[in-house]
Design brief:
The complex is a heterodimer. Chain A is built from one helix and nine strands; from the N terminus they run ββαβββββββ. Chain A is 9% helix and 34% strand. Chain A is globular. Chain A has a single domain, classed as Beta-grasp domain (Ubiquitin-like (UB roll)), CATH 3.10.20.30. By secondary structure, chain B is of the alpha/beta class. Chain B contains 15 helices and 23 strands. The chains are: A mainly beta, B alpha/beta. Chains A and B meet through helix 1 of A and helix 5 and helix 10 of B.
Chain lengths: 128, 574
């Protein structure tokens, strides 16, 4: 293992053509300040153009369009700083239908009537 | 699966959502279809807006005061009928949004000007009228209203690839569903274009945080152009630049200086400008320093906080404020994590570069009913032009989208009620299908490399300070990209969520848009607001008119159009 690399094991699945999901390994170069979302874009731009993930970024960790499971925990990929030498398991957000790879259908119910929300497992839910 | 709708709305940012809501209110029977490139409320430019808004709320203030301020900032290039609508309807629309659950952050005790939130000096405000509704709660409120209306169908992850026109009548659009790869026709009685801005066209845009996409390809302008719409002031790009360093800071650098008492310093350690200055002047002065060799190695200038009168805690407080930290806790945690070795903001050697596109003032020409020159085609929000003139006053974008979004929805609804569908030509869908499928090729150029190249070209040659020579070089290079690379653009096979394919579709429109901007910039031989020509540094009163673009015989036809004047005579102004 190279200490200056990052190892990502990424969930891959196209429900229209694949019989079952597979996992694909990517090794990428670490650099200072590299975020998980940016690393995924690097993979798509340079190694594997078929990797699908939501590549929109609001820059404020507000929109949660990049929610995904990292080592089993739902987090925003835009706010996850990568450390040199680490290995991560990247999967789509649990409990939502997969469109392709890391892209899920968030469904239509995500906002709350009065716009007041609290965070629960990474999803905006109504404050009771 | 082709769809028939009464009203088709392209884009579900603030303007599109507001249009859908108003259309539904006007006619609860109408079938309304709204498209968005990503999930509604989780993508697009509205959601990333920090939330600054200006509307008349002070007892001594009046719509006419705001009207005058907006025209002053916009260098009198504004369509006055639109500004009147903006200033008069702004408060009502904003209060409505708050009632729907958008959360206004109230920082009265921190305000220096007496408004409900901090006022950024130097933005041309004669009265305190700043308000602050972070984009994410703004969109949550609108989305919630969409969900309550059963006659609105939301199609997420879908883009329009072509507007359909029969005679001079908009009759719908061809749509690509990104989730499934399906290409289908939406027949509509009225079409509302609310597709937003063009940040992706300029490198270092704050519309694309961390270099990711911002759903701001500017495709809507080109769609309208190809449909035969009139576009005005296409040279008017507002720049705010972007931070180069440290990597954890994003957004408008002027904020750090004005809020935290920082200084602009060049590589020689000299303070080269003092606030307050308008946005465009900050950009130009920083650009000049860098061009004349006083920039940093990364190609920027420093913002120095070491001499700030504020303590470390106070600066952190201001930073949290600008991030709306109540909602963006993760972001603040990230900043702390990334700056762990150097936690005191006063010691960050902040560098910023001018030239990233922030907002686009030009766009589709509309009247106060949001009608375009094409019957049944309406436009609202950033894709429309004329409201902001040559420069946008900070905080007006978030007001514009709800005011004009609502108007577009209302009048499109009225139009749709009185007409029938017009069937588009059969072959159009087949042709478009063939064109889009044609991008699946084994060999060729990936669109993302071409987009990057175009963005750097635009930032360097059509950026903050323009000259005829550089603009003409840019034009030649755009043409070079179009003839040599565009035919080779390819995407990997795969219909489902294939972003390479989406980019391949967008790049030809982005090249068209780049050409429109560059040609307009050559045409306007004066400096006004955000458009600065080094070879014509002064404003020229004979240029108190819009540049206007229309498609004629397949090419860009450039002309001028008069400014609509209602309250403030332009006579004698520069």
């Amino acid at each position: 293992m190279n200490k200056k690399s990052i190892y990502l094991k990424v969930f891959r699945y196209d429900p229209s053509t694949d019989y079952a999901p597979t996992y694909k390994n990517y090794e990428i170069q670490w650099r200072e300040g590299l975020l998980l979302l940016k690393a995924l874009k690097d993979i798509r731009d340079n190694f594997d153009e078929t990797l699908a993930f939501r590549d929109f970024c609001c820059g404020c960790s507000w929109c949660m369009s990049c929610l995904m499971m990292v080592n089993g925990k739902a987090i925003r990929a835009c706010s996850r700083l990568l450390k040199a030498g680490e290995s991560l398991l990247i999967e789509p957000l649990k409990g939502k239908p997969v469109i392709k790879d890391l892209v899920v259908d968030y469904g239509i119910k995500m906002t709350t009537p009065q716009g007041t929300f609290k965070k629960m497992e990474g999803i905006l839910v109504k404050k009771v | 699966m082709n769809i028939k709708a009464d009203i088709l709305i392209i884009g579900a940012g603030g303007a599109g959502c507001r249009a859908a809501i108003e259309s539904s209110n006007y006619n609860p029977e109408a079938k309304i279809v709204i498209l968005n490139q990503g999930p509604v409320g989780r993508s697009g430019l509205t959601v990333m807006a920090n939330g600054g808004m200006r509307w008349v709320s002070h007892p001594d203030d009046s719509p006419f005061n705001l009207f005058q301020d907006i025209l002053e900032v916009g260098c009198y290039l504004n369509e006055q009928n639109l500004v009147e609508v903006l200033t008069e309807e702004g408060p009502q629309r904003a209060e409505e949004l708050i009632q729907w659950g958008a959360k206004e952050l109230i920082y009265a005790e921190k305000s220096r000007s007496g408004g409900r939130s901090p006022d950024d000096p130097g933005r041309g405000q004669s009265y305190p009228r700043s308000h602050y509704i972070p984009g994410v709660t703004y969109m949550a409120a609108l989305r919630n209203q969409l969900e309550r209306r059963s006659n609105i169908t939301v199609i997420e992850d879908a883009i329009a690839t072509k507007l359909l026109v029969a005679g001079n009548r908009a009759v719908g659009a061809i749509v690509l569903n990104i989730r499934t790869g399906e290409i289908f026709l939406v027949e509509a009685k009225a079409t509302v274009l609310a597709s937003g801005g063009l940040g992706e066209l300029f490198a270092n845009s704050d519309n694309c945080p961390f270099g990711m996409r911002g759903h701001a390809s500017g495709m809507g302008y080109a769609l309208a152009y190809h449909a035969g719409a009139e576009l005005i002031d296409m040279e008017m790009v507002q720049f705010t630049g972007n931070q180069l360093y440290p990597p954890w800071l994003l957004g408008n650098p002027a904020l750090l200086v004005s809020m935290c008492g920082g200084k602009y310093i060049n590589a020689l350690g000299e303070e080269f400008m003092k606030l307050p200055l308008p946005r465009d002047a900050i950009q130009r002065l920083a650009y000049k320093e860098i061009k004349e060799g006083r920039g940093t190695e990364r190609g920027g200038v420093y913002i120095d906080l070491t001499a700030s009168p504020l303590s470390r805690e106070e600066i952190e407080e201001q930073l949290k404020l600008s991030l709306a930290v109540e909602i963006g806790k993760e972001r603040w945690k990230l900043i702390q994590e990334m700056s762990a070795d150097n936690p005191d903001p006063r010691n960050w050697k902040i560098e910023f570069t001018p030239g990233g596109a922030h907002f686009f003032m030009g766009g589709v020409k509309i009247n106060e009913k949001c009608e375009t020159n094409i019957e049944g085609l309406y436009a609202a929000g950033e894709v429309s032009g004329g409201v902001h003139g040559a420069n946008r006053m900070g905080g007006n974008a978030l007001v514009e989208i709800i005011v004009f979004g609502a108007r577009a929805g209302r009048y499109a609804g009225e139009f749709a009620k009185n007409v029938d569908w017009t069937k588009p030509e059969e072959c159009l869908l087949k042709d478009e299908h063939e064109r889009l499928m044609g991008f699946f090729k084994e060999r060729g150029v990936n669109a993302n490399t071409l987009i990057d190249r175009l963005a750097i070209l635009m930032a360097n040659k059509v950026g903050v300070a323009r000259t005829e020579g550089e603009l003409k070089k840019a034009l030649a290079e755009i043409e070079y990209l179009r003839t040599n690379y565009l035919p080779q653009v390819r995407a990997a096979r795969g219909l489902r969520y294939n972003l390479g394919w989406v980019e391949a579709i967008q790049i030809s429109y982005m090249l068209d848009l780049a050409e429109m901007i560059t040609r307009s910039a050559i045409f306007r031989t004066e400096s006004r607001g955000a458009h600065y020509r080094e070879d014509f540094p002064e404003s020229d009163s004979s240029w108190l008119k819009h540049t206007r673009i229309m498609k004629k015989d397949g090419t860009i036809n450039l002309g001028t159009a008069p400014i609509t004047v209602t309250k403030l005579n332009l006579g004698g102004r520069k």
